[in-house]
TrEMBL record:
GO terms for molecular function: RNA binding. It comes from the Bacteria. Pfam families: Hfq. Gene3D superfamilies: 2.30.30.100. This is RNA chaperone Hfq. It comes from Occallatibacter riparius. Residues 1-26 are annotated as: Disordered. GO terms for biological process: regulation of DNA-templated transcription.
Length: 117
């Protein structure tokens, strides 16, 4: 196999103008940014501090098995101990085990305290 160099002028292809930049992919380009949910990309320092306080409070209630009263946006009242949580939900063990979206919670308080707003 012999390879011969054929100038572009002989192949009938035109050369790009000298003032037009030649675009080439850089093989050592930076890696793509990690995927982020758009809903959480706007969090600032104050929101982060608020979130840390929320996580600390929930962890404390889980470890001490504190009976809680959770009032939902629709007025429903759920009593029980928080078993676990994640970014969007709480799992509460009471008469039944219930998974509650945090966005549905109006407020919550420890059972036995005055929690009325």
């Amino acid at each position: 196999m012999s390879s011969t160099f054929t100038p572009m002028a002989e192949t009938g292809l035109s050369l790009p103008p000298a003032d037009r930049p030649v675009l080439r992919k850089n093989r050592r380009s930076a890696p793509a940014a990690p995927f982020r949910f758009s809903a959480y990309s706007h969090l600032d320092h104050e929101d982060t501090e608020h979130r840390q306080a929320e996580l600390f409070y929930l962890q404390k209630q889980i470890q001490s098995q504190t009976p809680m009263v959770i009032i939902l946006e629709d007025g429903e009242q759920i009593e029980g101990c928080i078993e676990w949580y994640d970014r969007h939900t709480l799992k509460v063990r009471g008469r039944q085990r219930v998974l509650i979206f945090k966005s549905a919670i109006k407020y919550m308080y420890k059972h036995g305290e005055n929690g009325g707003i």
